[in-house]
Amino acid sequence: MIWLKLAWRNIWRNKIRSGIQFMLICGSVYLGIVFHCLAFGNYKNMIDQAVRMGSGHVAIYDTLWFKTRKTSAVFDTKNIKRFLSNDSRVEKFYERLYIPAFVQRVSGGYPVNIISMDLKEEIPTHPLLKNLEWKPEGKEYVIIGKELAKKVGVSTNDRMVILARDFYGEVSGILVRVGRIVEFPLKEIDCCVIFADIDYIRDNLHYNGKSHEISIILRDMRVADKFSKEMNKTLIGSVKSYTWKESMKELVSAITIDYSGLILIMLFLYIIISVGTINVLFMSVMDRTTEIGVLRALGLDSKHINVMIFLEGLSLGGFSSLVGLILALITNIYLSTRGLDLSTLYRFVGGESWSYGGVMINPVIRSVWEWKGIVGYTVFIVILSGIASYFPARWINRLNVAEILRK
Amino acid sequence: MEIVKLEGVSKVFKSGEEIINAVDDLSLVINRGEFVAVVGPSGSGKTTLLNIISGIEKPDEGKVFFLGHRIDTLPENKLSELRLNKMGFIFQTYNLIPTLTAKENAEFILFLQGVPASERERRIREIFDFLGISELLDRFPKQMSGGQQQRVAIARAVVGKPEIVLADEPTANLDSENSKKVISLMKKLNKEMGITFIFSTHDPLIMESAERIIHLRDGKILKEERKD
Question: What interface predicted TM-score (ipTM) does this complex get?
Fold first, then answer.
């Protein structure tokens, strides 16, 4: 206890110097935790959006389609669907057909992609469609982007013809009706995608019971790897199961790059803090050279001096980190419930669409409680502060006690 | 019984081109319970002699014995242990730890000696009462006068029950009244607790109270006086 008392009082001998270092450490822990939790909140949101928009936590594809996007590479879904219906880990699964097509108008043809899905089922949960509050009145109803509607010159309830190759490679015309026109936040969807009913497309293009993809949403995304492995044991032929990390490599790269950037910034900040702490302890030790010489004369050995300076670093780091941690936790309570709305900022810097790594992101970022990071940032800086004491302690221990006392 | 014994001890300092014989072929025996003053002009080697006795300074030549054991060959950690457990120190400028109270300054030594908390408390009370400075227990050094700080420094020096106390000009920064108080406390500790005191001084007052006075000049013993 007396060591801690001594260390604590020693660090506050020079209030300004230690105060600045306190703010630096406290601020870094605060920023580290807040940004870490926000980043993870954003990644969670991105993964969730991507998973629901795209291929789920686990997706089943024909390998050829996965590698080449060849339209003919479809597979029969009947048995797989039965299997998935009986697995308690599966929250939902969706079948999809992705067909390249042309919208035929008098003014010309416009290339589009048909994303055919169970519209009734997916509209309530799909990140791009869930705010529609609309139920298609018939299977021929489709949803298109505002940009596409403008380009093609159609309004709600207008009919149009889409040309696409059927399962046998013949060009077929599908008559659809515009059910809803939506301004999608992703430019590439707004201009060029038609959301259509899968059964209607199958019937018209002869893809009976076949899909390009079964997108599986799991109750717990952490079991994705295990689930995918198990699926691969039951699947036959060229049909394989892929986790979201395998099927959305672009997203994984985007998250990895973003997180690496965050880590680099924090590392840089922490190096500054370490140098600052070494400096504060060095100055403090140099100011007390005579005093420490006297302590050595009284019988303190180099280990005692090491402990004393180590505890000074540790208590400065520990106290500052604790305050930073408390402030960060309070901030995180707010950010995890209310979120941080970046839409104004984003518009200000001229962003065109809310996408990153090919994935739509929510401008309101909600942080998560990522305890590994919270504890990691705090403990790491406390350890760094302790380590920073090594250099001043080594310096003072090398000085000759008799010479210090003579001075 | 011998507590300190020096045999042909020499210590040389170099200052640029100049070579100073701080202690020159000095032999000396101090017995347990003695109250010894080392006197001499500045630069005569008083402080160096005390530093050699305590192991803070290693002699260039000669042997140093403490309680019959040779200490000039001991490693630094053993010397620290020896100073902590067997020696007490009083400095000219008091040198209390400014961030600890008087009580904590004394307690720190006991803590390092591994004395249990309850025993520490008892011994601190006892020594502060003995020295008549109990009212200073909770004061920080900056809240005390020079004389008060030096009395607390004496308490710190003896609280660990040392065999010997080495005092380097303990009254040099004090007025005559405070000097008298400090000397009488040291004398009291010497008589009643049997602690050996070796102190360097210029102060005639402190010289008067010494039983044995060693006169140094140029690192050599010029003469010795003993009072019976």
Answer: 0.88
